[in-house]
Design brief:
Helices cover about 45% and strands about 15% of the residues. By secondary structure, it is an alpha/beta fold. It has three domains: about 10-135, Gyrase A, domain 2 (2-Layer Sandwich); about 140-215 and about 400-445, tRNA modification GTPase MnmE domain 2 (Four Helix Bundle (Hemerythrin (Met), subunit A)); about 230-385, P-loop containing nucleotide triphosphate hydrolases (Rossmann fold). A hairpin with a 6-residue loop joins strand 1 (about 10-15) and strand 2. The radius of gyration is 30 Å and the shape is flat. The protein starts with 10 loop residues before the first strand and ends in a 7-residue tail after the last helix.
Length: about 475
């Protein structure tokens, strides 16, 4: 654990978003929380907050001490250490949810002994007290920021500690191997019994495989957490904007019969199979001398470059052209969905001809205008998203955080180095060095070996009050 002294100040913050609402909460945490609440709270029944049972709610008023002026009518909840969010005494004051009552109550708390909480400090105290580990603390932020059902569900699973337990198991495996190696180093040449090199080689191989299995979940986990980007591209006037509006189920992009209506990229989000999908409508890719269109085409190509999935639209009422092939060559290395639009019109080429030209057996046939087979587009996005696998969140631990992914990659790299040492000439000192680094990398995820600057960077992403 990092060298960090637990701050004993009592902190306070508004824990709900500012704005007009029915309820707003001012939260206190620390050893003086109840004392501060006693100073500013009055109850018709003269409740003694110090001696009140744990987890009780009290009706009353927040008043300015001495002056007696009433600030707001409130419900005050007392939660006593250690069974609280921060493992400290916590008081939550439920006020009317407007900026002025919340601000006034917070100012009274600060004037009577509390200090304003830093961003994420309540959750940071939960981590420092050992109630949650660092991966679980990050899951709290993921729940707050979740923009899709899958992201929320995965974050809840992370908060339960399933992922953390697996990382701790891997770290304990590492430390067990390390202890055997160091025992061998310390007692080389002495009459002491310890497990030999063969077992160490076997254990390191098992460790490498176990880390690999967890790391393999990162692709799916990042999709659940961050979503994916889908870019709709094609020649002008093939129906790109119409398809985007159809997917969004509202008119977001301007649609006209005039080719080149969309001259810039437009991005919106929707949920497909519970995953956030960021859909971009792009300018038609075509040869042009118009300066605005040239810039629009350049932006379209840039969007395609960074897309997870590309929807390539062609118009069946127009013949296939060299421009279609040029666009297809631009995207052929991407995950691509080819869509034939306007099947309600007379065809200028057959479906079989398109499959032969683009060497694809799964070209979708739709009519955005008539709403024909539009669901097939969403179905294909789901299939491409997960490469045809089950879309459900697996019951096994899932990597869904880039910081965790990088730490696991570094841990894996060091187990590979350890395997190389075992395969060449067994050297206990070098093995111990690599395995110490594996343990450090795994400890970065759950917080056993994380530095203060990383902690500060993580918790600074939280809002004040969480």
């Amino acid at each position: 654990m990092m060298d960090q002294v637990k701050n004993t100040d009592t902190i306070a913050a508004i824990a709900t978003p500012m704005g007009a609402s029915g309820i707003g909460i001012v939260r206190l945490s620390g050893e003086d929380s109840i004392k501060i609440a006693e100073r500013i709270f009055s109850s018709p029944k003269k409740r003694d907050l110090y001696n009140s049972p744990d987890r009780t709610v009290h009706y009353g008023h927040i008043r300015v001490p001495d002056a007696g002026d009433m600030v707001d009518e409130v419900l005050l909840t007392v939660m006593k250490a250690p069974m609280t969010y921060t493992s400290e005494d916590v008081v939550e004051i439920n006020c009317h949810g407007g900026p002025m009552p919340l601000k006034s109550v917070l100012e009274l708390c600060l004037a009577h002994g509390a200090r304003l909480a830093e961003p994420g400090e309540f959750t940071k105290r939960a981590f420092l007290s050992g109630r949650i580990d660092l991966a679980q603390a990050e899951a709290v932020l993921d729940i707050i920021r979740s923009r899709s059902e899958m992201a929320r569900r995965l974050a809840v699973e992370q908060l339960k500690g399933v992922f953390s337990e697996e990382i701790k198991r891997l770290r304990n495996m590492t430390l067990d191997i390390l202890s055997e190696i160091e025992l061998g180093i310390d007692f080389t040449g002495e009459d002491v019994l310890f497990f030999g090199e063969e077992k160490t080689v076997h254990d390191i191989r098992d460790l490498h495989q176990a880390i690999s299995r967890v790391l393999e979940t990162a692709g799916r986990g990042m999709i659940f957490r961050q979503g994916i980007s889908v870019v709709i591209c094609g020649r002008p006037n093939v129906g790109k904007s119409s398809l985007m509006n159809a997917l969004l189920k509202r008119d977001r992009a301007i649609v006209t019969p005039v080719p080149g209506t969309t001259r810039d990229t437009i991005e919106e989000s929707l949920a497909i199979s519970g995953v956030e999908v960021r859909v971009s409508d792009t300018a038609g890719i075509t040869a042009t001398n118009d300066a605005v269109e040239v810039e629009g085409v350049a932006r379209s190509k840039e969007k395609i470059q960074y897309a997870d999935i590309v929807i390539f639209m062609i118009d069946v009422s127009m013949g296939l052209s060299d421009e279609d092939m040029a666009i297809f060559n631009l995207i052929r290395e991407k995950k691509t969905i080819i869509v034939e639009n306007k099947i309600d019109l007379p065809r200028a080429f057959s479906h079989e001809e398109a499959m032969d030209r683009f060497r694809d057996e799964h070209i979708l046939e739709i009519s955005v205008l008539e709403g024909t087979e539009l669901s097939s587009v969403e179905d294909m996005i789901t299939e491409k998203m997960f490469d045809g696998d089950n879309i459900e969140i697996p019951e096994t631990p899932v990597v869904a955080n880039l910081r965790h992914k990088e730490a696991l990659k570094n841990a894996l790299k060091n187990t590979e180095r350890a395997q190389d040492i075992c395969g060449k000439k067994y050297n206990g000192e070098l093995l111990a060095s690599d395995l110490n680094e594996v343990a450090r990398c795994l400890g970065l995820i759950t917080g056993e070996s994380v530095e203060d600057d990383i902690l500060d960077r993580i918790f600074s992403q939280f809002c004040i009050g969480k």
